[in-house]
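Blinded run. Sample ID left blank on purpose so nobody reads anything into the name before looking at the predicted structure. Input follows.
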Amino acid sequence: MKLEFPKNRKDLGWALRRLQARWVRARNKATFIGITGSSGKSTSSSLLAHILSAQGKVHLQAQANTMPALIRTLYKRLRRSGKVDYVVFEAGASDFGTIGAMAQMLKPSVAVVTMIRLEHFGKFRTLEAVAGEKRALVEALQPDGLAVLNCDDPLVLGMASGAKCRIATFGQSDEADYRVSDVYAAYPELLRFTLHWRDGSLNIQAPFPGEQFWLPTAAAVATALELGVPPEKVIARTASFEPLPNRSTVQEVPAGPQFLVDTAKAPWHSLNIALEMIAKAKAARKRIVLGQISDYAGSSRKYGAAYKIAREIADEVIYTGDNAHRSRASQADRDSGRFIELRSAKEVSDHIKQTAVPGELILLKSSSNLHLERIALAWTHDVKCWIAVCGKSESCQMCGLYEVPFEEHRDFLAKRKLARRRHRFRWLLGG
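Blinded prediction complete.
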């Protein structure tokens, strides 16, 4: 058999890191938990890690949910972090085979699946194809493993068929092992619901502004209880969780507006959920800023359909980005100010600052590429990076350079890197 060796240094480095990652995983005795789904997986992962930290040391890898992120987690971070009790990894599907490859590397003890929706439409095309990809995480479990499945979603529940492991289900269905009832949230009142399970009922309170967050919350709570976290700790840790940035995160400005920042993603299948959240919220004035919508079949008429719903909810609807002209708003709505078309985040920011009313509620909703979170950040920081599309997938908060003009980012990073090197080797320089 002829062995094929990497052709260049980059490929060789990648191959070595994969081998190191497999070596670390094979020797690590932590409980490895993989979480996937078309929505809610980042919140489920982060909340579960927060709950489990009451029981032991946890390593969380969320939002960056690809094979490179998994390999970095295993070969670099776990290798250096000492004993870890739990590893929580969010697994995202970008193409056929991606979940299967990560599952084989992760070798999870627990697999959690939140829901199946039509994501990455250009690749998967059908719900069944998405479900088949996500199912690989469950299929990687050993007989002593645990799958935590959303029984309200037939495609998720179907993953229990043929599974070798133990199954625990959550949902609003009467058949759920962890049944959710009495869900309520109407901002500024935050999420609460009752969870019924084999040992009774729990009154769960979570710091989320919308009812849709019951699902990732229930997924995390059910998994924690299955792993033996005492109910009182689950309740307390859930209530103390700090929501992830830009995922329906509340930002209140003293004597100014209140923002619901939901700019991490905007798939068509979940857009109505964000709009319903605003509809149920209680505020004297409501505005909706809509940027890029993703993951839909057919024409861009979806923007027109979204506007029809949004105009019935908000006093003003603002469309921004390259698709701002697709609202199909009437001339009467444009003339009255019910609809406003602005092409850039900076224009939207300037408009809101000029017209803001104390206590009003403003939804910022878009795919991450437009970075509309800058509109809210501009009320508390001196935002100077207003480039339309920077090409970075990470949020402005994670990037951290929103107070630096985009054209100066490279020089700024180079200077910061040099300063760190000088600090690190100051003893050689006589400092």
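Unblinding after everyone has recorded impressions. The first helix runs from residue 9 to 27.
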